[in-house]
Amino acid sequence: MSARGSVGRLVGWTAMFVLGLSNTPAFRLSAQQVTIGPEVAFGDYREVSSDLAYRGSGGGAKATVAWKKLSADVVYTKVNYKPTSTSAATAAFNAAELDVRLHYYISGPVSAELGLVNRKADPEFEAQSVGAITAGAQMAYLLGPGVRMALHGGLMFGAKYSGGGTTSALGALQLGLDLTVDALHGRARFSGDYGFQRFSRTTDDGSGALPAPIQQSLGRIGLAVVF
To answer: What domains are there in the chain, each with its CATH number?
Structure first.
């Protein structure tokens, strides 16, 4: 099964899970079961070396559902990347990214995290499209009434690239910081998050393995409605 196919199936299951909870009376007791809303995004993308550098902005949406020890985040972002003034790149591209993260609470601030990431570049070969399975942990803290911070990180496995290449089992990682603030008596939520991805990709043109890493930093700010 391809990473892109796995993304589609997991997103479908998550959507059905969210809809099922929102339409089941037993799960409407909490004011913070489901949140959904738009986001503004800012990104920095680098490929092969820092000479190929892009920056851009765009938008997207985020949906979150939580029930007992389980929670899920589904985030879609589309960023228009343009070469920086010092970059050797000459063409812009759009990057549409889908992140799905499932959490299972373990103890204290710690939850296990499993998910998928899929990023598609358009035009296809101006940058690398990539899909991978993610696994790691999340640590969440309540900083004050209605203010929550979460740190998460882990490895990305089975990465597939549109332009070919491979990554070792420990060669791809992601890190993130999320902050949410409740407003309007818990009926709305402001959010801000920052994510970093690094794929230590290598390619082989017949002369041996060559490093061709991919790196992205992505920040998002949003406002969500709480159901």
So the answer is: 3-226 (2.40.128)
